[in-house]
């Protein structure tokens, strides 16, 4: 260093900056890992996903018969209208000659075919939608024609899947009238067409087996691939879609949804209707999800859930649960509500809702799903006088958990609506018991203050 203090200082500064940059890189990497695990993984449904199954049923030199099935393996997140839209990219020169149980939204350019019969679809990236209920019988296959709606595993296990069948041919062989090699390429870049879902790469698995003749015969596919699609609320929407308000019989204060829970009034994407105004008339295309137009509120959420602690008995306590739809342009079909609370394992009765516990971690039974009764309240209507559903819960007081109304114990730890986590007020704002509230300064008259001071001085003397 030749005794030059500037050289020594420069060397130290360089090593410090290098260590600092390394620490920053590690910190950024950890934050990214934490964010991805938070937004792409649901601890209440760790194995939930949508799986696309591709079964090759028949294969000759130029054509394949393929059965495609879509299964919703999620406990409480379902696919509602307008439904799934399956798409992929062909890697070869494939065309879809025929399809039953579903249809493509576009036929594409099939002008190269001079035959009388044209393919069902010539697009390089076909978009497939489910047939509607009541489709012609000759276009149906087993487990089809639900309009793209898939139930969750908990609500209706018999309606969580959909299937269709198609015949794939070679474009060049069909146009030129030649016999080419068998189709070997597999589609890539699968998408289910639903916000928040990301599909992985196709994975070849053991061939699927099918039961025929009332179980007396079993057949199997020639080849089978699985494509797994996972959900992330962060990818689905940048802001929450629901919020929670709280109240209790022992406190007159109603704790509203936190301000700007879902959006703030005045933002370009936050459309709301004031009292007395009429909602807009929307012109929607087929299979298009309408953007929310909500009632003007401080929180601006389409859905509000209110948890009210009603009564306390000797051995039981009672809760009223209300779901209000503040969205003017959407009905919620087959809605569901997932609640996390330690006393749910002692639910005695639920009025006017269906209820099932969600027990993913052994004996830890603190989560349950609520959903409507079919043909009664399974549809949550758009904002208005009838735009709400409600129930009451009767729960046994669990002495093992040291039951108490203090410290906000009676309020839920987590609530989600249709699989979307809702914004809950901070515990500091929970309704408090009358004898446990914080000290509040009271403005006293000057004469009373003087009298108190006089009495204090009198006792001191």
Task: Outline the secondary-structure elements.
Elements: H1 5-40, E1 50-59, E2 63-72, E3 85-89, E4 94-100, E5 102-104, E6 127-130, E7 161-170, H2 171-176, E8 188-191, E9 197-199, E10 203-205, E11 209-212, E12 217-220, E13 223-231, H3 233-236, E14 242-248, E15 251-255, E16 271-273, E17 293-295, E18 303-312, E19 316-325, E20 332-333, E21 336-340, E22 347-351, E23 354-357, E24 367-371, E25 379-380, E26 388-396, E27 414-417, E28 420-421, H4 446-460
Transmembrane segments: 439-458
Membrane topology: Lipid-anchor; GPI-anchor
Keywords: Glycoprotein, GPI-anchor, Lipoprotein, Membrane, Signal, Transmembrane, Transmembrane helix
Features:
33% strand, Immunoglobulin-like, 4 helices, six-stranded mixed beta sheet, alpha+beta
């Amino acid at each position: 260093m030749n005794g030059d203090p500037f050289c020594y200082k420069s060397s130290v500064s360089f090593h410090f900056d290098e260590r600092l940059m390394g620490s920053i890189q590690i910190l950024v990497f950890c934050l990214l890992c934490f964010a991805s695990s938070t937004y792409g993984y649901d601890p209440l449904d760790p194995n939930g996903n949508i799986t696309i199954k591709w079964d090759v049923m028949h294969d000759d030199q130029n054509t394949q018969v393929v059965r495609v099935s879509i299964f919703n393996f999620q406990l409480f997140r379902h696919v509602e209208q307008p439904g799934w839209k399956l798409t992929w990219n062909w890697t070869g020169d494939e065309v879809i000659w025929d399809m039953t149980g579903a249809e493509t939204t576009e036929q594409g350019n099939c002008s190269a075919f001079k035959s009388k019969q044209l393919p069902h679809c010539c697009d390089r990236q076909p978009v497939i939608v489910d047939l509607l209920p009541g489709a012609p019988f000759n276009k149906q296959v087993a487990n089809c024609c639900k309009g793209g709606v898939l139930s969750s595993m908990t609500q209706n296990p018999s309606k969580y899947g959909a299937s269709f069948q198609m015949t794939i041919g070679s474009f060049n062989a069909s146009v030129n009238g030649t016999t080419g090699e068998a189709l070997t390429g597999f589609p890539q870049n699968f998408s289910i067409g639903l916000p928040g879902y990301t599909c992985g790469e196709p994975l070849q698995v053991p061939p699927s087996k099918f039961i025929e003749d009332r179980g007396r015969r079993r057949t199997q596919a020639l080849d089978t691939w699985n494509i797994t699609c996972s959900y992330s609320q962060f990818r689905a929407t940048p802001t929450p879609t629901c919020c929670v308000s709280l109240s209790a019989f022992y406190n007159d204060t109603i704790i509203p949804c936190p301000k700007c829970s879902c959006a703030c009034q005045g933002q370009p994407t936050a459309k709301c209707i004031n009292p007395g105004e009429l909602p807009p008339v929307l012109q929607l295309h087929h299979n298009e999800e309408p953007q929310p137009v909500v009632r003007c509120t401080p929180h601006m959420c389409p859905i509000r859930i209110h948890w009210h602690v009603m009564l306390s008995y000797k051995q039981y306590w009672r809760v009223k649960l209300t779901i209000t739809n503040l969205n003017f342009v959407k009905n919620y079909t087959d809605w569901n509500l997932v609640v996390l609370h330690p006393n749910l394992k002692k639910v005695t009765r639920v009025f006017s809702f269906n209820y099932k516990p969600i027990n993913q971690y052994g004996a830890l039974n603190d989560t349950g799903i609520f959903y409507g009764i079919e043909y009664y309240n399974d549809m949550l209507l758009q904002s208005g006088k009838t735009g709400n559903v409600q129930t009451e819960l009767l729960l046994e007081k669990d002495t093992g958990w040291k039951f108490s109304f203090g410290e906000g114990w009676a309020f839920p730890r987590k609530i989600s609506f249709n699989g979307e986590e809702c914004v809950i007020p901070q515990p500091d704002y929970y309704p408090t018991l009358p004898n446990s509230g914080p000290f509040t300064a009271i403005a006293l008259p000057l004469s009373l203050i003087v009298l108190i001071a006089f009495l204090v001085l009198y006792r001191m003397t």
